[in-house]
């Protein structure tokens, strides 16, 4: 039995370029790993059963337990890379990251399954190969492997670690229901066309990391980071889910120094000055009626790591 803990992410900057011919967008995606996370436990399965899944946690009922789950896909992909046919393994996901919440929960589980199965099967897969497999699974999966803070380019899968000093304190307000990431990107494109700027990669400049944001991370300056938070998908997420504006307002009025929609949403992220402020903001958000629940946490933290076996 191998258990791997894997962090959620918040995008402290999500710069979105224009729509490419392949249907993707170039990104300048500054990932930040937080202590709110899932645990994936891999155990040897019953011979002939293949990859099986179970899940526990608040959102367990909406987690797919079939072959579409990224954790199951990760196990099969790793086995295929090593020439292992039809692996028999059971994966249990202890879910704390919101489902379809813009915090890369599914991607995190895929990364955790790679690490857990690699350890369970004694494969000792090189880190570069695991990152390559992670990128095949999805744009956010490689970051879940490495954690910390990193700049993602391309679709987000090309990672460069970034320096960050100290600990930053966050609150995440979880909405009822999820938002489809592809739908939010389509809405971003639609809004750009509607505004007359165009949505293709020939219309929108390739984004780059904000130097002020990078300096704030390196210096451990929460106030400066709060002022530099940006998400080019936020307008699209608010267009599809207007109620998020009330959530952002409630967290700010409760004392958060920075607020934004996390990734494609609908989870909203709030940066606070310290742990006490995070606890107060989380309590206020839970009482506000603008979200299902709220979690205070911190970061940056490492990526997927084995807890025990």
Write up what this structure looks like.
This protein is an alpha+beta fold. It has helices at residues 70-81, 105-120, 127-137, 141-146, 181-195, 211-219, 222-228, 234-240, 244-253, 275-288, and strands at residues 2-19, 25-44, 51-56, 89-94, 149-153, 158-161, 168-174, 230-231, 258-261, 268-272, 293-299, 305-308. Strands 1, 2, 3, 4, 5, 6, 8 and 12 form an eight-stranded mixed β-sheet that branches. Strands 9-10-7-11 form a four-stranded antiparallel β-sheet, sandwiched between helices. Strand 3, helix 1 (70-81) and strand 4 (89-94) form a beta-alpha-beta unit.
Order of helices and strands: EEEHEHHHEEEHHHEHHEEHEE
Q: Mean of the pLDDT scores?
A: 95
Q: Given the structure, what is the number of helices?
A: 10
Rg over alpha carbons:
19 Å
Distance between termini? 5 Å
How much β-strand is present in the residues?
25-35%
Shape: globular
Biggest sheet, in brief? Answer: 8 strands, mixed
**Structural class computed from helices and strand pairing:** alpha+beta
Q: Uncertain regions: pLDDT < 50 for 5+ in a row? A: none
Portion of residues within helices: 25-40%
Count of distinct strands: 12
């Amino acid at each position: 039995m191998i258990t791997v803990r894997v962090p959620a992410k918040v995008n402290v900057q999500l710069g979105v370029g224009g729509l490419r011919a392949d249907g993707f967008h170039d990104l300048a995606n500054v990932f930040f790993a937080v202590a709110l996370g899932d645990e994936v436990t891999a155990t040897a399965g019953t011979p002939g059963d293949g990859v099986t899944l179970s899940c526990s946690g608040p959102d367990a009922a909406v987690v797919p337990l079939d072959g579409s789950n990224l954790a199951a896909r990760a196990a099969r992909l790793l086995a295929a890379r090593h020439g292992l046919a039809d692996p028999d393994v059971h994966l249990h996901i202890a879910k704390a990251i919101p489902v379809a919440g813009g915090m890369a929960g599914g991607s995190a589980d895929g990364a955790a399954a790679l690490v857990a199965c690699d350890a369970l099967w004694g494969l000792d897969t090189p880190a570069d190969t695991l990152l390559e497999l992670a990128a095949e699974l999805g744009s956010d999966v490689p970051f879940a492997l490495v954690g910390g803070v990193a700049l993602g380019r391309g679709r987000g899968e090309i990672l460069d670690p970034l320096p960050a000093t100290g600990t930053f304190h966050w609150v995440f307000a979880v909405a009822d229901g999820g938002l489809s990431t592809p739908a939010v990107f389509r809405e971003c494109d639609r809004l750009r066309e509607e505004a007359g700027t165009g949505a293709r990669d020939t219309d929108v400049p390739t984004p780059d990391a904000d130097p002020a944001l990078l300096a704030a991370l390196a210096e451990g300056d929460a106030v400066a980071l709060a002022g530099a938070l940006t998400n080019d998908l936020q307008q699209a997420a608010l267009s599809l889910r207007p109620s998020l504006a009330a959530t952002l307002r409630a967290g700010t009025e409760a004392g958060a120094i920075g607020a934004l929609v996390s990734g494609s949403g609908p989870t909203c992220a709030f940066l606070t000055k310290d742990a006490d402020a995070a606890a107060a903001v989380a309590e206020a958000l839970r009482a506000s009626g603008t979200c299902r629940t709220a979690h205070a946490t911190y970061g940056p933290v490492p990526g997927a790591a084995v807890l025990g076996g």
